[in-house]
Amino acid sequence: MRSTSNPAFRNLPTQQGGYATFDRSGGGMMGGGAALGGAQSSYVDPSQTTQDTGRPITIDDIVQKTAISGGLALVAGFLTVLSGLYVLALPAFIVGIVVSLIVIFKQKPSAPLTLTYSIAMGIALGGITGVIQDSAPQQYAGIGLQAVIGTAGVFFGMLVVYKTGAVKVTPRFTKWLMGAMIGVVVLMVANLVASFFTTGGMGLRDGSPLAILFSIVVIGVAAFSLLLDFDAADNAVKAGVPEKYSWYIAFGLMTTLVWLYIEILRLLSYLRGD
Fold this sequence. Notes:
- By secondary structure, the chain is mainly α.
- The protein has one domain (7-272).
- It is 66% helix and 3% strand.
- The chain has nine helices and three strands; from the N terminus they run E-E-E-H-H-H-H-H-H-H-H-H.
- It has a three-stranded antiparallel β-sheet.
- A hairpin with a 2-residue loop joins strand 2 (28-31) and strand 3 (34-35).
- The chain is globular and about 55 Å long.
- It starts with 20 loop residues before the first strand and ends with a helix.
- Residues 14-51 have low confidence and may be disordered.
C-alpha cells in the first residue's frame, strides 16, 4: 500500500468512504482496508446523497479541467507581465496559499476554488517572472517563455514515462521519492535560516555551481512527483470516483506544476547570471 506525495490526492474518496492510498498489486485503489476491483469497482460513499455522486470520472474530465486551470494560469501570468503590475505578486501568492489550504483541508472538490488558485498563482508567477526580466532586460529576455516551455516539456515527458511504464510507481519508489522530498524541504529551510546569519546562507540559492546542482535535484524531485500524481489520477478513474473530483485532481496537478515552474525559472536565472 502506498500514498501519493501530493496532499490534494490524499483526499480522493474510496468505496468505503475513506481516503485514497494506491496499490496496483492489489488490483486498483486501496482504501479503508479493502481493495477496489479496478475499472469494475463502483463508488459508494454513505456521507453523500445519490444526487451528489454523479457519473464516474473519465480521463477526458481530468484533461479538460487541468487544461482549463493551466490555461487560466498562463493568461493571468501573461497579463501580469504585460501590464507590469508586479506588485500583485505577493498578495496573489498569499491568496493562492490560503485557497490551497482550504481545498486540501475541506476535502471536497470545488471548481471555483481550483480556478481561483490557478489564477492567483498565475498572477504570482507572472509577477515574479516580470521582476526577473525587468531587472536585466537583455540578460533575462524571454526567460518566462523558456520556463513555460520547460515546464510543459517536463510534464508531457513524465506523462510518457508513466504511460510507457519506463518508471513504475511502486511502494519502494514512493518511499524513495517521499524521502527525497523531505530532504529537499529540510535543506531549503536550513538554507533560509542560515541566510539570516550569513550572506548566501548555505549557498543553495545564490547562483553558484552548488545552487545550480541543487536546483537540478529539486526539479528532478518535482518531475518524479508528477508520476505519483498521474498514478493517483489513473487509479481514481479505475475506482470510478464521481466526475466532480476531476477538479480536485486538476488542483493537485496544478500545485506540482507551479512548484516545477518556479524551480525551472530559478535554474534558468542562475544559468543566465554573470
